[in-house]
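cache lookup: miss for this entity combination. No prior model stored, computing from scratch. Input as submitted by user K.M.:
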Amino acid sequence: MPDGVERRPAGPREERGVLQGRILASARDSFASDGWAGTSIRGVARKAGVDPALVYHYFGSKEQLLDAATEMPPEWAAGIRGDWTMPLDRLGEALVRGTLRNWADERFRPLLLATLQTAAHEPRTREKVGRVFAGVLMAPALERLNADQRPRRAGLAATQLLGIVMMREVWRIEPVASMEVDHLAAAVGPTIQRYLTGDLD
Amino acid sequence: MPDGVERRPAGPREERGVLQGRILASARDSFASDGWAGTSIRGVARKAGVDPALVYHYFGSKEQLLDAATEMPPEWAAGIRGDWTMPLDRLGEALVRGTLRNWADERFRPLLLATLQTAAHEPRTREKVGRVFAGVLMAPALERLNADQRPRRAGLAATQLLGIVMMREVWRIEPVASMEVDHLAAAVGPTIQRYLTGDLD
């Protein structure tokens, strides 16, 4: 906490959760649209309807606020680990469906969106995306796949899933933005399957 | 041009090109990292080492500056149209190689990078990416492909190419960032080929 900011009582647990949620939502909007340089604790506090001192009290600094605003909840990683427990020959479709399911989930969607938008122009968040990619997406591939070239296979699968997400969820470009989940699973599942277990050369 | 800004002589043609190039490079950096709200004509002029009045003189407004900073040169679109003239059964690999070739070309790379970074958080640029996608990538697909579901096929191909570009060129996440062009063409070419001419369901 910086000098000159008065520590205030945090209030009952429920109120604290609500206020932290409002501050994080405001921070996500600001980092995503205005970037690191364009985001200030004061601006985040104003949009959240709280005193800037409360933002410092809960989050300490702008660095820590960005970290908290782009921190995926454990349920998200758990869901992806669950998708990776599918039989090997059905992993392709399972990962496509799992990705679309996560983006349709209101617990994850605003966070995923803000993280990808921020990562586009903020190196700190880009590095974090890289770490999450390695820890959440790459690690189960290295455990599950028998094939050679496992990092390369997981990386190729990630490019296809990411491309769907960018075009459909972040940019909303047609016709991909409106394609049905079943159609996408049927069209893209075999791509992921081949990258993970098929012949690559 | 806004009131109160003095019109100044544009100088010889060569100098004008150099100055415009410096202003555009500065604008690309700023829009990509600070977004629309965080970019000012004054800041762009300062980083380019020119007077703000010159930015207004050449580009008129911040809107027009953003438009110019994210305008792909005609050679880029011509190269993509050239890739689409390949025999139908070799289009998959040709489009992967063409995409990587464009990103390795210093005439296009800074512009492509700034446009994708800006599109992540700037709706105006996102819409432009959508129009370019439809005009440059979708139009040849509609002309060339015999298969059914042509817009859907072109859209799926675009997701895979975009995902490669985001992971390799924008975020530089390994192992995709360091994969050789020949390996990527062999691994991803068949994906694009299937999306364009193969069995999707």
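stored under new cache key. Residues 1-7 of chain B have pLDDT under 50 and may be disordered.
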